[in-house]
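Good morning C.,

I know you're traveling, so I'll keep this short. The sequence:
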Amino acid sequence: MATTSSKVPRSDAEYAAIAAAAAAAVASRPGGARSLTVDDVLCGESSVRSALDTIGGAWSILVLTALRSGPCRYSEIKRAVRGISDRRLAGTLRDFVRDGLAERRVLSTIPSHVEYELTPLGQEVSDSVSTFVVDIMRLAPRVAAARAKS
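The tokens, ready to paste straight into the viewer:
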């Protein structure tokens, strides 16, 4: 006879509350974000990892950056993010809409067009990601120098 697990799956809201509590705990430590550990990230369980999956990839960062300029049609994003495949772009935009980072609007034109725009949450995420990217750009010469040495 098979046994069932007594562990009840948590809702997205419960995972989000756990992640928010973990973020508050990290922020209250001496050193704040500098004291972040892997355990801190993992304690948010799927909420934190799911968010990182959505925004953590290079393509996602580029799409977020493209959307910072305002509403864009799919083809405009595709031109801006050179090299992204249709499948990757469609999946990234679908994830952004699902996670509340972007809104998808069907324009009543002939033929109809679809437009994407960052939500206030998406703008906040984009601002944080942009700060991170600028830091990486600033550090790029040191990374290049280290590569040259090896």
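Safe travels,
E.
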